[in-house]
Design brief:
The complex is a heterodimer of chains A (about 525) and B (about 350).
Chain A: E1 3-14, E2 17-28, E3 32-36, H1 43-50, E4 58-63, E5 66-68, H2 73-78, E6 81-84, H3 96-101, H4 115-129, H5 144-157, E7 162-166, H6 174-189, E8 193-198, H7 201-207, E9 210-215, E10 218-224, H8 230-238, E11 256-266, E12 272-282, E13 285-290, H9 297-305, E14 312-317, E15 320-321, H10 327-332, E16 335-338, H11 342-346, H12 353-357, E17 368-369, E18 372-373, H13 375-388, H14 405-418, E19 423-427, H15 435-450, E20 454-459, H16 462-468, E21 471-476, E22 479-485, H17 491-498, H18 507-515
Parallel strand pairs in A: 3-8, 3-9, 6-7, 7-8, 13-20, 13-21, 16-19, 19-20
Antiparallel strand pairs in A: 1-2, 1-4, 4-5, 9-10, 11-12, 11-14, 14-15, 17-18, 21-22
Helix pairs in contact in A: 14-15
Chain B: H1 3-18, H2 21-46, H3 51-63, H4 66-91, H5 99-116, H6 122-151, H7 155-175, H8 207-225, H9 227-237, H10 239-244, H11 249-276, H12 287-297, H13 302-326, H14 330-355
Helix pairs in contact in B: 1-14, 2-3, 2-14, 3-4, 3-13, 4-8, 4-9, 4-11, 4-12, 4-13, 5-6, 5-7, 5-11, 5-12, 6-7, 6-11, 8-9, 8-13, 9-11, 12-13, 13-14
Classes of the chains: A alpha/beta (about 525), B mainly alpha (about 350).
Chain lengths: ~525, ~350
């Protein structure tokens, strides 16, 4: 079968960086070809060139054997391309159908298209590919997974034969990912071709026909998925051996540092989001909170860090009751917090790295003396943290918003650990990070645990929970369904608990029965 | 094919890209002023005068000598004080549009002390008047602060509405209870000499002006070198992160409104004891509203605010003289002033867009 897309010798540089240094890439009809690489490897740049968003400095692109020169995305769309960006381009207050016709010429100007008719057409397309969406639903009422389906539907409605999906699974829950991968298979079986951009090895392995690995703007290799494995892919992607299943010592938990007793709290709409949550975390252990996103993890994280008030129950740190104390009092009780949304909650993006590095400690000695900021001390501290935690940045005066995800997270980690906490709340600490950064964060957490810190880990990635935690608490609809030791944990059982099903009696006796 | 031009274009934008904010301000504000003056020249030609000669008159009458410069500084004093106060507020993204009202209430408080405190010696009376002005202005800033913190009311709306209430209170008092005994006009009695700002250095430069100028480095220090300045900036930049970091967001809103109100109130007292010397239906040339522009054009940087307030004052004096010397209509001067302000903002936003 011939190639439907052929890119040859693509070169693209930006001031100071070469994003693509002579990349060849091709896509065959009906295949899923993954582009794998760490953040900044040049995947998105390459696809933006294909989609007409950027113009290459050198190199050629052919679609169906015909050489093309796209000036803008409309040219690309006319040639049957469709791109779904990582951040959706949908008007939140419009319905699905209205979003689909947005920017399209109406068939009956000056009136807009008949939305019922559009709805019918959409239903036809969505039935064909298994993209269940109500065409008249308003976007903001839809889940993230559904919104993504709308984006794909939009591309298909505009006649896309080739779909470019930029990190599509980064925003999805595990269940949604599964559904999503099914849809992709369905699309290719109906003759569509897909370019899948990702840095998640397991997904790439699961669905790709071929995989191209990019590193530092160069293509390392293109391989058939059936001829490779995750370990080889990781090595090619990072450029060295990666230790995904690292060894860790058995935890030696000491005294209880964080006690949560019968905690209840409401969500932003005033409905109960946490119900009778109790657990404790000891010094020198990691307690992982597993659960599907949206089951009260955010509320729990906020209550524990003082950003949300609880309606009843208690929160005790090292014997001191800090229930409903504001964040700075929680900080004084030596609770540090790596927040879920690192850009919106963790860092002030238009402040310098130095300012962010001492954020909570700004008004304390030695950073403030006699009411006056000591910039020299602040800069020294920032420089030493940046160095110690390997934050890659041209200068400590760079704005924090310019940091890549991994470096932003390292900065937050550095800052929180520099506060010398008793308890660390780490929420989704590796979400959206590339392999090297994930490895770094994981090692740092284990190291802190071994040094005797009490760590509460929130993660929607079950693999992360399993590889880091010493004990696992599963949260479902705002309740802790159960807490189990890592040694006794069984993926199947945790999966069931995440879906709200708890087996009646002790796990130890019945594990074998269920599995057989 | 057309790769060459796009490269050149990119290189040109790179200059803006790598420039620091200070450099951007240094490019955008003068070029905006220039553009405004060129557009203003068109209006002057239409009105039948020589633009070059007109601009010469404007310059020499406002910045052409020591006395002119002092008059410009005196004119700039209320703008500078209000601009400094609002800078603090705007740093925290608390949009206080109520400086006009805070100025009026400050003037009222200052006048009361100046009117009924004449038994006191001058070195006591003047500081007391200034303090009264500070208190009056901050009380008028306290109301929107409480409304915002307790009820989440929009600061823009509450401060804007409180302007009218403050102005009407002063107007009512000036034609009612506090009206000049035996007078017909809606105005209060004149302040006695003892209640006027002392003049300094043998010139017309008065104490209020000196205080305003001294406050520039003080406010700059607060912004750049104190935890308070840091927290105000943090709350303005991202209240969510500020809250996460343990900063008291409500306290920052409170401080922002009280501080800007206090400085506006002091400006009111200073004007009442120098230029107007009494309360009357109008005691402000839109100082409170122009102060918003000055704080924004000065990029909420105290030194920038100093420059813009002097520029505004020079422009006002310059166009007044155009009216006196060559008889151009006063409305033309307003038009030129507006053109300059608009041009600065257009050029500024254009350059900033290029830079991002």
């Amino acid at each position: 079968m011939g190639s439907i897309v052929e890119m040859q010798g693509i070169i693209k540089s930006f001031p100071g960086v070469t994003a693509n240094a002579g990349v060849d890439f091709d896509l065959k009809k009906g295949e899923i070809h993954s582009l794998l690489g760490e953040n900044g490897a040049g995947k998105t740049t390459l696809m933006n060139i294909l989609y007409g968003l950027y113009k290459q400095d050198a190199g050629t692109i052919s679609i169906n054997g015909e050489q093309v020169n796209f000036m803008n995305p409309s040219d690309a769309i006319a040639h049957g391309l469709g791109m779904v960006h990582q951040h959706f381009m949908l008007v939140q207050r419009f319905s699905v159908a209205e979003n689909i016709i947005l920017g399209q010429k109406s068939s009956r100007e000056p009136r807009i298209d008949d939305l019922n008719l559009i709805g019918k057409k959409l239903t036809e397309i969505s039935d064909l590919y298994g993209l269940k969406v109500n065409p008249h639903a308003i976007i903001w009422t839809l889940s993230v997974g559904e919104q993504q389906r709308v984006e794909i539907l939009k591309a298909l409605y505009r006649g896309a034969q080739i779909l470019i999906l930029d990190e599509p699974t980064a925003v999805l829950t595990p269940q949604e990912v599964k559904e999503f991968l099914e849809i992709l298979k369905r699309l290719t079986s109906e003759g569509k071709s897909i370019i899948f951009i990702s840095h998640k090895l397991s997904e790439v392995m699961e669905i790709s026909d071929r995989i191209s690995i990019l590193r530092d703007g160069k293509k390392i290799e293109t391989v058939f998925a059936k001829d490779t494995n995750e370990r080889d892919l990781a090595r090619m992607m990072v450029g060295r051996e990666v230790n995904t299943n690292f060894e860790k010592k058995v935890a030696e938990p000491h005294e209880v540092r964080l006690q949560v007793e019968h905690l209840c709290a409401n969500n932003n709409r005033g409905l109960e989001a946490l119900h009778d949550v109790s657990f404790d975390v000891r010094a020198g252990e990691i307690l992982g909170i597993a659960g599907v996103a949206g089951n009260g993890q955010n509320e729990l994280e906020e209550v524990l860090s003082g950003l949300r008030k609880s309606t009843s129950g208690k929160k005790i740190v090292c014997g001191k009751d800090i229930t409903n104390m504001p964040p700075h009092k929680v900080g004084i009780a030596r609770v540090a917090h790596i927040p879920t949304d690192r850009y919106k909650t963790g860092l002030i993006s238009d402040f310098m790295i130095s300012e962010n590095a001492v954020l909570q400690r700004i008004d304390r000695e030695p950073f403030t003396k006699h009411g006056s900021l000591q910039w020299k001390k602040i800069n020294e501290e920032a420089t030493s943290l940046v160095k110690r935690f390997g934050v890659k940045t041209p200068s400590i005066k760079t704005k924090a918003g310019k940091l890549s995800g991994g470096n932003a997270q390292k900065l937050i980690l550095a800052r929180e650990l520099a506060r010398d906490p008793y308890v660390l709340i780490a929420a989704q600490p590796t979400r959206g990070l590339d392999i090297s950064a994930i490895e770094y964060v994981h090692h740092a957490l284990i190291e802190q645990r071994d040094l005797g810190m009490a760590i509460l880990l929130f993660s929607t990635e079950l693999t992360e929970i399993l590889s880091l935690s010493d004990r696992i608490a599963v949260i479902y609809e705002g309740r802790i369904i159960g807490i189990i030791n890592r040694e006794d944990a069984d993926i199947l059982e945790i999966g069931l608990m995440m879906a709200g099903i708890k087996r009646p009696s002790s796990t130890l006796e019945q594990t074998g029965v269920i599995e057989s | 094919m057309n790769r060459e031009p796009s490269k050149i274009q990119r290189r040109r934008t790179d200059i803006f890209h790598t420039a620091s904010p200070t450099v951007l301000n240094l490019i955008s504000i003068p070029s905006g002023i220039l553009l405004g003056l060129i557009l203003g020249a068109v209006l002057i030609v239409i009105a039948g005068a020589d633009p070059i000669a007109s601009y010469k008159i404007m310059f020499s009458s406002s910045l052409g000598g020591k006395n002119q410069i002092i008059e410009t500084l005196i004119k700039a004093c209320p703008l500078l004080l209000i601009g400094l106060g609002l800078s603090a507020s705007f740093k925290a993204k608390v949009w206080n549009i109520g400086a006009e009202g805070q100025y009026y209430i400050g003037a009222l408080f200052g006048w009361m002390v100046g009117m009924y405190g004449t038994a006191l010696p001058k070195p006591v009376l003047i500081p007391l008047m200034l303090t009264a002005g500070l208190i009056g202005g901050s009380l008028w800033g306290l109301l929107p602060a409480i409304l915002k913190i307790k009820n989440g009311m929009n600061v823009i709306i509450s401060t804007l509405m409180l302007n009218y209430i403050a102005i009407l209170i002063v107007q009512y008092l000036a034609r009612g209870p506090l009206q000049e005994p035996g007078g017909f006009l809606p105005r209060t009695a004149k302040l006695e000499r003892i209640a006027r700002m002392p003049q300094m250095f043998g010139t017309r430069l008065h104490l209020g002006c000196v205080i305003a100028l001294l406050l520039v480095p003080v406010v700059y220090y607060i912004f750049t070198s104190t935890p308070l300045g840091f927290k105000l900036r943090a709350v303005g930049s991202n209240p969510k992160v500020a809250k996460y970091a343990g900063f008291n967001v409500n306290l920052a809103i409170f401080i922002a409104l009280i501080f800007s109100g206090a400085l506006a109130g002091m400006a009111g007292t200073i004007e009442i004891s120098t230029a107007y010397q009494r309360l009357q239906s109008s005691i402000s040339l839109n100082y409170g509203f122009n102060g918003v522009l000055i704080a924004l054009l000065g990029r909420t940087n105290p030194w920038g605010v100093l420059l813009t307030s002097i520029f505004f004052a020079a422009l006002t004096i310059g166009v007044e003289n155009l009216h006196v010397v060559i008889g151009l209509p006063v409305s033309l001067s307003d038009a030129i002033q507006a053109l300059v302000v608009l041009s600065v903002m257009v050029v500024d936003s254009y350059i900033r867009k290029k830079a991002s």
